[in-house]
Structure to design on (280 residues):
């Protein structure tokens, strides 16, 4: 199976540096029947930025991430990922540069697949292991990913036997396996217990502080799940981007309350956020 050649990859990295944006959505709308899942959203993610996307259920978060992951095209507007215009580029080349993990993807992974293979096949952004030939650097990177995400002891276990937290970590390790330019995570904290959430936030915080790490976008419902070191936030409500920018300017009482439709008080402490209902 063909992998993007090193030269091509270097060229794309240079392109991103020139254009400045890793993800550039301009005035995008996604319509299904008479509904607008996304309504004239403009959102640009620069290289090295780490974004959290917040919003209530049905706000359009997953739809936006699917577009950034090149899995969905908007009804109107333009999308450039790593300087490549969606609709005018070879997605097979682009996708290995975009690491994407969601519970939806977890459903595509055969439960009998070993954890090692789930991570390894991420090198090619495919599920199920076929006839790829893995080179020594791939094997080494796979071991590093397994170690970074606390999966070394579980490498021979089957994906279907993992706990929710272990499964989430395996999907993130897999998304990072191809050494992507951008990492997109859809609700990585959903369904985790407190220990699982704290473990995940700590590992994601470590990734956020790694200068060699890709640009990151994480969707969540809970400000408590924002890893330390995240730089920017986008608030979505009813398909519209109601606020975006540097995290301290966006995660405020007023803006978060408008986003979730109830009075909220936010606190920031030690790089983490906490929110609760505000009482008059
Ligand atoms: N194919 C579709 N047809 C109609 N509505 C859809 C379709 N896909 C998603 N939706 C609806 O669009 C809205 C936005 O969905 P989604 O992006 O998954 O929101 P979020 O991830 O913020 O919860 C939801 O109300 C969802 O039910
Ligand atoms: Mg969603």
């Amino acid at each position: 199976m063909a992998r993007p050649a090193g030269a091509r990859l270097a060229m794309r990295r240079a392109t991103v540096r020139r254009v400045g944006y890793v993800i550039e959505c301009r005035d995008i709308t996604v319509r299904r029947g008479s509904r607008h899942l996304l309504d004239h959203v403009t959102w640009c993610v620069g290289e090295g930025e780490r974004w959290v996307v917040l919003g209530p259920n049905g706000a359009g978060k997953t739809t936006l991430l699917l577009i950034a992951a090149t899995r969905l095209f908007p009804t109107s507007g333009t999308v450039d990922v790593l300087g490549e215009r969606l609709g005018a580029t070879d997605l097979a080349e682009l996708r290995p540069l975009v690491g994407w993990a969601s519970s939806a993807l977890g459903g595509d992974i055969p439960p009998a697949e070993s954890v090692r293979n789930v991570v390894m096949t991420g090198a090619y952004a495919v599920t199920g292991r076929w006839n790829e030939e893995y080179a020594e650097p791939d094997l080494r990177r796979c071991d590093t990913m397994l170690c970074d995400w606390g999966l070394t002891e579980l490498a021979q276990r089957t994906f279907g036997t993992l706990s929710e937290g272990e499964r989430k970590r395996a999907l993130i390790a897999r998304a990072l396996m191809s050494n992507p330019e951008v990492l997109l995570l859809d609700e990585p904290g959903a369904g985790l217990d407190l220990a699982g959430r704290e473990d995940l936030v700590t590992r994601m915080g470590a990734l956020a502080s790694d200068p060699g790490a890709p640009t990151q976008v994480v969707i969540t419902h809970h400000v408590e799940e924002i890893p330390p070191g995240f730089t920017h936030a986008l608030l979505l409500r009813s398909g519209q981007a109601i606020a975006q920018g540097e995290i301290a300017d966006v995660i405020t009482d007023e803006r978060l309350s408008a986003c979730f439709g109830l009075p909220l008080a936010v606190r920031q402490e030690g790089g983490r956020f906490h929110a609760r209902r505000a009482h008059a």
Observations:
- Confidence is low (pLDDT under 50) at residues 1-5.
- The first strand starts at residue 21 and ends at 32.
